[in-house]
């Protein structure tokens, strides 16, 4: 009885946590460059004052993300880029740290700063600024060139280069903001990864989410059924306890 209660209780909680992950993946099925989040669970004995051999709980663990490439769609827009292979784009997060993303639908703000979903895109020397009104093009190595407004092709100038990195993806950590960070440094903070001169991107294209809507829906249904099963086990355990109490009261 005791094992049944603890197993069903922790299993139901794990199902709720897994449903959150699946729901988040499904809601980002159309998000550019999104990487699906993975979820797993393992059984562990209860520790502390309640330690008993019959009590085992389920602990939810998030082993990482699915780094498989999403579909690439050509848009023809000059500020759309898709990273090739293991290349990642460096952007400045809200907390001031350098983070990495596969999302490539870039924009320019009113000051000409190149942004990635409102966050500055990092270049070799920091955020990249483009002359206002200029015609912008992005090369395969991330080099940004601009033709000032009212000028001809002969006035083409290089204004910066997008920082591209090729990290060991298993060492990347997803933040709550959806951006990925590198391994921790000696100060315990995410460190900036070195740029890769050989990393390449495709201009005029976007990489879509690698989440399969069909797989996510199947997972959602599966998790919901497992949650119902755990709740039924709790109800059964309660009924068994009530019957046992009735038998004991009769024998008393």
Summarize the structure in words.
This protein is of the alpha+beta class and 252 residues long. The protein folds into two domains: 1-67 and 210-249, no CATH class; 72-207, no CATH class. It is 26% helix and 29% strand. The strands form eight sheets. The protein has a three-stranded antiparallel beta sheet, with no helix packed on it. Strands 7-8-9 form a three-stranded antiparallel beta sheet, with no helix packed on it. A hairpin with a 2-residue loop joins β10 and β11. α1 packs antiparallel against α2. The two termini are 21 Å apart.
Q: Tell me roughly what share of residues is in helical segments.
A: 25-40%
Strand content: 25-35%
Low-confidence stretches: none
Task: Describe the largest sheet.
Answer: 3 strands, antiparallel
- Strand segment count: 19
How many distinct folded domains?
A: 2
Query: How many helical elements?
Result: 2
Rg estimate, integer Å = 26 Å
Major sheet: arrangement of strands: 6-5-15
The rough form would be described as: elongated
Q: Termini, distance in Å?
A: 21 Å
| Protein structure class | alpha+beta
Mean pLDDT: 88
Helix and strand run:
HEEEEEEEEEEEEEEEEEEEH
């Amino acid at each position: 009885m005791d094992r049944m209660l603890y197993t069903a209780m922790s299993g139901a909680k794990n199902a709720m946590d897994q449903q959150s992950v699946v729901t988040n993946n499904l809601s980002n099925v159309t998000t550019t460059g999104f990487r699906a989040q993975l979820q797993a669970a393992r059984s562990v004995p209860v520790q502390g004052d309640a330690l008993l051999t019959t009590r085992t709980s389920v602990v939810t663990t998030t082993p990482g993300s699915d780094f498989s490439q999403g579909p690439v769609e050509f848009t023809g827009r000059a500020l759309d880029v898709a990273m090739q292979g293991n290349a990642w784009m460096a952007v400045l997060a809200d907390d001031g740290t350098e983070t990495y993303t596969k999302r490539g639908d870039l924009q320019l703000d009113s000051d000409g700063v190149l942004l990635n979903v409102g966050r500055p895109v990092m270049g070799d020397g920091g955020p990249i600024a483009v002359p206002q009104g200029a015609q912008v093009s992005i090369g395969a190595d991330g080099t940004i060139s601009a033709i000032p407004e009212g000028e001809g092709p002969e006035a083409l100038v290089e204004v910066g280069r997008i920082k591209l990195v090729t990290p060991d993806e298993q060492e990347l950590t997803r933040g709550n903001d959806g951006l990925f960070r590198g391994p921790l440094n000696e100060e315990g903070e995410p460190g900036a990864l070195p740029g890769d001169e050989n990393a390449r991107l495709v201009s005029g294209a976007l990489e879509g989410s690698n989440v399969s809507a069909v797989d996510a829906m199947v997972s959602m249904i599966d998790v919901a059924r497992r949650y119902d099963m755990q709740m039924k086990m709790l109800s059964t355990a309660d009924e068994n306890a009530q019957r046992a109490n009735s038998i004991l009261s009769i024998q008393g």
